[in-house]
Amino acid sequence: MFTLHQYYLRYLEEQSIPKEWYQMYHVKNGLRNEDGTGVLVGLTKVADVVGYEMKGTMKKDAQGKLYYRGYEIQELLEKKDVCNQYERCGFLLLFGFLPSQEELSVWQSVLAEHAALPEGFLEKQILRGSSKNLMNKLMQDILTLYEYDDNADALDNETRLYQGIALIAKLPSLICYNYASKQHALHGHSLYIHPMAKDRSTAENILRMLRSDRKYTKEEAQILDLMLALHSDHGGGNNSTFVNVVMGSTGTDLYAAFAGAIGALKGPKHGGANCKAAQMMKELMRKTGLDASEAELKEAAAQLLRKEGFDQSGLLYGFGHAIYTYSDPRAELLQDQAKALAIAKGKQKEFAYYERFAKCVKALLKEEKGITVCTNVDYYSGFVYELLQIPEELYTPLFACARSMGWLAHNIEHQLASGKIVRPATRYVGTLKHVK
Ligand SMILES: CC(=O)SCCNC(=O)CCNC(=O)[C@H](O)C(C)(C)COP(=O)(O)OP(=O)(O)OC[C@H]1O[C@@H](n2cnc3c(N)ncnc32)[C@H](O)[C@@H]1OP(=O)(O)O
Ligand SMILES: O=C([O-])CC(=O)C(=O)O
């Protein structure tokens, strides 16, 4: 009797493609050039991500910079005493200019108007069906929302833009209600469904919906708002945005493209790294204690790199980036937030542990792999969320909620500017055979 396992072993023996062939056939593996830079696959006016400079044909590492529609992120998010940076950045990403105060309030009321879920959706789709993973549930919900849209397959870009806005407006309640429903269904927790308040920002509404007493402080809302704004876009090349553009290029519906992007973002090498990093750090703190020496921290990192412990992937989550080298500007902003929050909440030792561990990992990856890595956006974000009492399961869904602005902006931009179906090539390297 043959078993599938045997077929699999045979497959490995006969069908595997040696790693060296990628170089031999000049494959742009992972859509990267030989120097690690990304293959140019599009043009965008939405955002720019800078991590190196090209001096002729030489790549030179540089401090990281992120621009939304030409505005540097630090400058854009300078104003700290407001709670609607996310809405402001979203407007900028989608329409290309910074809204006036009046335009911003119109935009907020448009989002509020579309936030309500279709009639019966909460009861049928959310309270009656939970999933073991909230990202998967979000994909299901978005695909179900397709059924409620009479013009779901519209090809016209303006219609798609409005469809996308209506979808984005619903993400905060989808995420929070699914969490509540799951906690109730799987863990027997009390169920509370707080409606979105029309006069509050997205960040305020998320905190309200997540908390049984609906209470939050202005500072908490400002930090969450900053987190959402920071995650709103990252150029056209990041995996989830690209997936959504590739799917959109076939003319498929926006619901499908968003579901695809959410699936991509869930991956632990992409947005899912925020959960993984938080879990990894918790396990390390338990294992080494908060007072671990530099040598102990470095050994703990080396063990992870050797695939010993944690998830045995060999990855140090929250480190490294396809573009950033010396620094990820978002991680720097988050590090400042994490520090301030840690002081306020008496978690300085944990914060110091994060900083000391980061130093060891950077040194280790330089020694072992010869690469310059920085902490990326996913390193400190979980720590910040934890101090805001946001449950771990929601870290990646919140990323999706924020990034949906960027997904939509790039989806529409590609359709308007190029409209070309994305279709690269692969080379057949098997042998030719005849059926006997
Ligand atoms: C929102 C975001 O998506 S930010 C990124 C979040 N992801 C993570 O934090 C997961 C950990 N990091 C990584 O896996 C990677 O750094 C990525 C996926 C972000 C970028 O990957 P790449 O562009 O392939 O990185 P790069 O070309 O610099 O990698 C060179 C080598 O270093 C390894 N490397 C890079 N980062 C790490 C890391 N954090 N831990 C262990 N090894 C790493 C790569 O696996 C590769 O090894 P190999 O040559 O043996 O195959
Ligand atoms: O740009 C990338 O490859 C990943 C990233 O940081 C993001 O999507 O925010």
Automatic annotation (TrEMBL):
Keywords: Transferase
Family: Belongs to the citrate synthase family.
Enzyme Commission designation: 2.3.3.16
Keyword Chaperone: no
Pfam family, one: Citrate_synt
SUPFAM superfamilies found in the cross-reference section: Citrate synthase (SSF48256)
Keyword Transferase: yes
NCBIfam families, A to Z: PRK14032.1
Group of enzyme by EC: transferase
Biological or metabolic pathway of the protein: Carbohydrate metabolism; tricarboxylic acid cycle
Annotated source species: Massilicoli timonensis
InterPro entries in the record: Citrate_synth-like_lrg_a-sub (IPR016142), Citrate_synth-like_sm_a-sub (IPR016143), Citrate_synthase (IPR002020), Citrate_synthase_AS (IPR019810), Citrate_synthase_sf (IPR036969)
Protein name: citrate synthase (unknown stereospecificity)
